[in-house]
Design goal:
This protein is an alpha/beta fold. Helix content is 43%, strand content 15%. Strand 6 and strand 7 form a beta hairpin.
């Protein structure tokens, strides 16, 4: 029997990190609580990066304080280094994400370090996390292509993923940071990753920059991926990746999975309501499609269309 789908919502962090207007802590807190209330497995709440580099994440400690220890087991946070890790632990985090790029070009612009330097730092974070009994996820950026160094081969991406595992990461998230992946390439790399690490340790993170986010998720599902990440309303993108628009939209992705008989446990109607409310709060339409179109009952259950 196939493992159930596990879904991680990243809008509060990856969605807001390069939002052009200030987003209040109150809005972030409400979004996290609403997403958890909608049945999302895990929410990536914030990142403990330097506010000088990512101003939208300057309230990380305050957000975690407001969310409280009771929600900590269902949250994860991004940390760029040991300093960020220590901040996160002091704020009550129980799961952290560390990140490295598949290319030096991207890694230097994103983290101001080489891949080797970043992996050395990640090794230290993972060692500290083992002592603290904190879960660690290794995120691999630009796994299919880099805006600075060009296409990334599946072999190259897998090599860096293996180094993340060797550094101590318990699970891996493989990301199409600039939205250049296509289904054939997704099947190739994800099949290799599943064969190497197993389906319980690999997540797929797609961006919809060129309209292929949901198609790529379906390709990953077809080769056995059981863990996906998305952003409600499709908001977000990497501030260090030129022209990289939003993440794959959570409700669009989960709707697809439900139609293929792979429910995640999250409520699609609730996510649609959250996306619609977020668009109103932010004062701008969001990239997602389903929250605008709505659900027709016969579409939601995959049945036949009503007679005309």
């Amino acid at each position: 029997m196939a493992q159930p789908i596990r879904f991680i919502e990243v809008a509060p962090r990856d969605g807001f990190q390069n939002w052009p207007d200030p987003v209040s802590t109150e809005v972030k807190e409400r979004l996290v609580r609403d997403l958890l209330g909608a049945g999302v497995t895990t929410v990536e709440a914030t990142s403990f990066v330097s506010p000088r580099w990512v101003p939208q994440m300057a309230d990380a400690e305050e957000l975690m304080r407001r969310l409280g220890a009771g929600l900590a087991p269902r949250l994860r946070v991004l940390v760029p280094n040991l300093r960020g890790y220590r901040r996160a632990i002091e704020a009550g985090a129980r799961e952290v994400v560390v990140n490295v790029g598949a290319t030096d070009g991207f890694n230097r612009r994103n983290l101001n370090r080489s891949i080797d330097e970043t992996l050395a730092e990640i090794t230290g974070v993972c060692a500290a996390a083992r002592v603290d009994r904190v879960a660690t996820v290794g995120s691999l950026s630009v796994a299919w292509g880099c805006p600075y160094d060009g296409p990334v081969s599946a072999g190259r991406a897998l090599e860096v993923a293996e180094r993340l595992e060797a550094a101590g990461c318990e699970r891996l998230s493989i990301a199409d940071t600039i939205g250049v992946a296509h289904p054939t390439g997704v099947r190739e790399l994800m099949a290799m990753a599943l064969g190497r690490f197993g389906p319980d340790r690999v997540a797929a993170h797609f961006h919809d920059t060129r309209g292929l986010g949901v198609a790529n998720a379906l390709a990953a599902l077809e080769v056995g991926v059981r863990e996906f990440e998305g952003s409600v309303g499709g908001i977000g993108g990497c501030p260090f990746a030129p022209r990289a628009t939003g993440n794959v939209c959570s409700e669009d992705l989960l709707h697809l999975l439900e139609l293929t008989g792979q429910p995640s446990g999250a409520s699609i109607p609730a996510l649609i309501e959250i996306a619609d409310g977020l668009a109103q709060t932010l004062g701008k339409p969001l990239p997602g499609k389903l929250y605008k179109a709505g659900l027709e009952p016969w579409v939601a259950v995959g049945g036949a269309a009503p007679a005309q």
